[in-house]
Amino acid sequence: MTLSVAVSGASGYAGGEILRLLASHPDVQIRTVTAHSSAGQPLVAHQPHLRSLAHLVLQPTTPEVLAGHDVVFLALPHGQSAQYTDALGSTPLVIDAGADHRLTSAEDWAAFYGGPHPDPWAYGVPELPVAGGKQRENLRGATRIAAPGCNASTVALSLAPGVAAGVIVASDIVSVLAVGPSGAGKSAKTNLLASEILGSANPYAVGGTHRHIPEIRQALIAAGAPSDGIRLSFTPVLVPMSRGILATSSAPIREGATDAEIRSAWETAYADEPFVELLPEGVFPRTADVLGANVASMGIAIDRAANRVTIVAAVDNLVKGTAGAAVQSMNLASGLVETTALPLNGVAP
Ligand SMILES: NC(=O)c1ccc[n+]([C@@H]2O[C@H](COP(=O)([O-])OP(=O)(O)OC[C@H]3O[C@@H](n4cnc5c(N)ncnc54)[C@H](OP(=O)(O)O)[C@@H]3O)[C@@H](O)[C@H]2O)c1
Question: What reaction gets catalysed by this protein (predicted)?
Answer without folding.
Answer: N-acetyl-L-glutamate 5-semialdehyde + phosphate + NADP(+) = N-acetyl-L-glutamyl 5-phosphate + NADPH + H(+)
